[in-house]
Amino acid sequence: MKTGKPTLGVMVGNRNFFADKLVEEGRKEVLATLNGMGVETVALSEDDTNLGATETWADSQKCAELFKANRDKIDGVLVTLPNFGDELGIVDAIKLSGLDVPILVHAFPDSIDELTAAGRRDAFCGKISVCNNLYQFGYPFSVTENHTVAPNSDEFKAEVVRFLSLCRVVNGLRTARLGAVGARPNAFRTVRYSEKLLESSGISVSTLELTEALGNANKLADDDSRVRAKLEEINAYANTEGAPPKSLLLMAKLAIVIGDWMDELSIDATALQCWTSVQENYGINVCTIMSMMSDRLMPSACEVDISGTASMYALQLASGTPSALVDWNNNFNSEPDKCLFFHCGNWAKSLVPEIKMVSAEVLGTILGQENTWGAVEGRPGAGPVTYARIDTDDRHGMLRTYVGEGVFTDDALSPMSGMHAVIEVPELQKLMRYICKNGHAHHAAMNASNVAGILAEAFEDYLGWDVYYHQS
Q1: Which one of 130, 214, 217, 402 is most buried, by most CB atoms within 10 A?
Q2: Given a cut of 80, is residue 2 above it in pLDDT?
Q3: Helix and strand tally (H, E) in the chain?
Q4: How far apart are CA 58 and CA 193, in angstroms?
Q5: Which helix (H) or strand (E) element contains residue 432?
Q6: Sequence-ordered alpha helix ranges (H) in 219-373
Q7: Domain with CATH 3.40.50.10940 in the chain
Q8: CA dihedral sign of residues 44, 50, 56, 62
């Protein structure tokens, strides 16, 4: 995943029979707003073309060469229209550049009392022409919520923030490197997936044998400096009161091995075989390790659910905050729009006010409580939540997704083990019918944010996936 400041390629449209002053001022205004937001820009200068705009065939060639030279840093393209603009000049530049990144089309508003030769923009109309040409050429693109937006407004800044999130999702997923540690639990055919279908969208999967991971962990000495440092990190991360020292030591060693493997292969996110082999052959739950990785923006999903990992990663890219894997787990009394999210659990610390390490209550009944230390316990506070699921539909050779939003509630709950939350989703029963009828897994990813619209647009418009956007 790209790090550092976000960078936008900026194309300024112009139609030469409109007033030059509008383009001169508009270009400066847009670039100043972006730079003030900490966004780097790649744009033609006024020395490169007339007014620094892209209008003629020669302008398109110059813009394309500039974008090509910066292709490794450009996250998306902003097309801004201070006036009607030349739609062909814009689409030719994009074609010649070879860029395959999200595109946002923006138009300046007119002042209704300045519709003179010196003051009119007609960008309202020009935007339609630009979009028409992008559509004809087969380029997916985004538009602002309102058709015209002043670039010095908070509304424009919010549009830029949203677009940058969209760019992170699209570009991040197209180059995502996921890691599968171990094999899925035998009974969990629900989390099966097609590596080939994921690869067709740019998502690669690397594998690590669980026996190799456990074997390398056992080779680390108890007094190894890295092991002692990781042990301190674990104790600082969660309340470990009551946890056996031996279990904490085993967690530290395995965390180092998995981390080294991720660094070696540039893995962005993982899915781990979290039961039953690791308990039977190593003697811990890996939930705390997974929680710590997710909290550091390296999402980790349970039960080798690679599709769940991809879902967590997508949510993280959109929001910039940690995600978690959850079960759609329980109804909430007789309230049809509420249910419980649950997992043993491995949710990131930043999602819950207090986090405590425990022995996994349910798994411990068959594997022994002494072998299941490492689960974490907590509950998110009230607030927004976005849920999402990416699945490979192998029967139809496609990626199928759903996204939506709800809220975490503060409804009273009797004491529960693991990570849990009450969530309210409008028309929840309709969503459950969709999930069941379309073969989705019982897992979902969730994030404490409102980013469903960003994911829906990224998945459908730019990645070409099937999307169900659940809205009331």
Answers
A1: 130
A2: no
A3: 15, 18
A4: 48
A5: helix 428-437
A6: 225-237, 245-265, 277-281, 287-295, 306-319, 361-367
A7: 7-174
A8: negative
Q: Which residues pair with 103 in a beta bridge?
A: 77
Query: pLDDT (tens digit, 9 = 90+) per residue, 423-460?
Result: 999 999 999 999 999 999 999 999 999 999 999 999 99
191-227 burial string, b = 16+ CB within 10 Å, else e? bebbeebbeebebbbbbbebeebbebbeebeeeeeeb
Summarised one tens digit per residue, pLDDT across range 209-242 is: 999 999 999 999 999 999 999 999 999 999 999 9
DSSP annotation of 378 reads: B
- Number of neighbouring beta carbons within 10 Å of residue 229: 11
Start-to-end C-alpha separation, the chain:
34
pLDDT bin (cut points 50, 70, 90) of residue 272 is: very high
The residue length of the chain stands at 472
Cβ contact 422:332 at 8 Å: yes
Instruction: Provide CATH 3.40.275.10 ranges for the chain.
Output: 177-470
Phi, psi values for residue 196, rounded to 5°: -70, -40
Class of domain 177-470: alpha beta
Phi, psi for 11 (deg, rounded to 5)? -115, 125
Q: Residue 462 pLDDT > 80, yes or no?
A: yes
Residue type, 433: R
Mean pLDDT of 248-269: 98
CA-based R_g, the chain, Å: 25
At 1, the pLDDT band (50, 70, 90 cuts) reads low
Q: What is the pTM of this model?
A: 0.97
Among 195, 408, 452, 159, residue whose Cα is nearest residue 307 = 195
Q: Which of 436, 434, 429 is nearest to 403 (CA)?
A: 434
Tell me how far apart the alpha carbons of residues 259 and 251 are, in angstroms, rounded to a whole number: 12
Tens-digit pLDDT profile for residues 172-216 = 999 999 999 999 999 899 999 999 999 999 999 999 999 999 999
Q: Cis peptide before 276, with omega less than 30 degrees from 0?
A: yes
Residue 108 confidence (pLDDT): 98
What fold is seen in the domain 7-174?
Answer: Rossmann fold (3.40.50)
Residue 370 in this model has a pLDDT that exceeds 70: yes
CA-nearest of 464, 450, 462 to 75 is 462
